[in-house]
Amino acid sequence: MTEFELIERFFTRAPRGHSVRLGVGDDAALLAVTPGWELAASVDMLVAGRHFFPDTDPQRLGHKTLAVNLSDMAAMGAVPRWALLAGALPHADAWWLTAFARGFLALADEHAVDLVGGDTTRGPLNLCVTILGEVPAGHALQRGGARVGDDVYVSGTLGEAALALLALGHRITLAPDALAQCRERLERPQPRVALGLALRDVASAALDLSDGLVGDLAHILERSGVGAEIELAAIPRAPVLDAMLRGPERELALRCLLAGGDDYELCFTAPVTAHDAIVEIAAVVALPLTRIGGITAGRQLVIRDERGLPLPVLPQAFDHFVAAV
Questions:
Q1: Rounded to 10 degrees, what is the CA torsion of 299, 296, 283, 67?
Q2: 227 FRET partner, CA 20 to 30 A, in 6, 129, 171, 280?
Q3: Do 33 and 69 belong together in one domain?
Q4: How far, in Å, CA of 252 to CA of 248, rounded?
Q5: What's the CATH number where 73 sits?
Q6: In a domain, 215, yes or no
Q7: What is the pLDDT of residues 53-73, one digit of tens each?
Q8: 230: how many CB neighbours lie within 10 A of its CB?
Q9: Number of other residues whose CB lies within 10 A of the CB of residue 139
Q10: Is the domain of 155 the same as that of 298?
Q11: How far is it, in rounded angstroms, from Cα 279 to Cα 193?
């Protein structure tokens, strides 16, 4: 199968609305942006052996390839509208492509996203999505708005994806049910798009947790010129991680919870006066939103353990150019 046959067979679809003036099949897509709205754009790359195991189920991989980009739109309070997909593939494997496209396009349909272009080439497995969304002018969530006295929240639970990665790499052993739950979080993250939209004009700052709480929250603190104190006991986690925190694997559990990455939950700050609105949002989007600490005047991130004492050393957040410990 040729490159163009591959694109036509697996990734060409009719646009869902009038916003796509010209889609897949030309040198560029032509898109109509809603008047009075701003364009939000983001790009993420997933590389086999670095971001996912090469034998990952292709349907799950298709889901995750788009999900990590939708998560960026959620963090900005943007409505995801259009995506472009580029990929290097070792082979034009029809079975693999059918499953991958099924996972990718099902999530695109769930969020009304049009696939409007991309590129393919032969090479080591590498997937890259550019996502485009819209947000009312002046209302995007950003990282630089946290203020002293604000509360710090996270959605969902943290640490399970990192725990799955350790288990699949044979560094720890999990019970079958715990492994299944953690693996679902790793391979099929759920982008919190509805939450991001609801937090517009409520949250003071926001981002998605892709590289771990410690590193990602630090971006909000740096951009906002503030510090934070976080209560370890308040950070939401699965029972398996809670048990590990109380046992001999505590240090490993701390790394997963604070710096494991791949959570794709939202971390956001909000004034204390927004508490009732946040409780209402949690009910509407059917997702736990947990206050884990507050913003302080200092420039440091302090995480207090169960006794209220600062952790002397924080685990290092994921960095592609720093060797993992």
A1: 0
A2: 280
A3: yes
A4: 9
A5: 3.30.1330.10
A6: yes
A7: 888 999 999 999 999 999 999
A8: 22
A9: 13
A10: yes
A11: 17
Q: Which amino acid is at 99?
A: A
User: Per the structure block, which two tokens stand in for 32?
Assistant: 């109509």
pLDDT in tens, 210-255: 999 999 999 999 999 999 999 999 999 999 999 999 999 999 999 9
Q: Which two tokens stand for residue 243?
A: 């048990």
CATH number, domain with residue 208: 3.90.650.10
DSSP code for 263: -
User: In this structure, is residue 309 part of a structural domain?
Assistant: no
HSE (CB half, 13 Å, CA atoms) of 106? 14
| Total-model pTM | 0.91
Both tokens assigned to 263: 């959570």
Domain range for 289: 151-304
Q: How open is the CA angle 40-301-171, to the nearest 5 degrees? A: 85
Q: Is 59 in the same domain as 124?
A: yes
- The average pLDDT across 63-84 equals 97
In a domain, 323, yes or no: no
Q: Are 57 and 153 in contact (CB under 8 A)?
A: no
CA 133 to chain centre: 15
Residue 208 one-letter amino acid: D
The residues with which 38 forms a beta bridge, in sequence order, are 135
Q: How many domains does the chain have?
A: 2
Q: Give me the half-sphere count of Cα atoms (radius 13 Å) on the Cβ side of residue 219.
A: 17
Instruction: Give Cα 17 to chain centroid, integer Å.
Output: 27
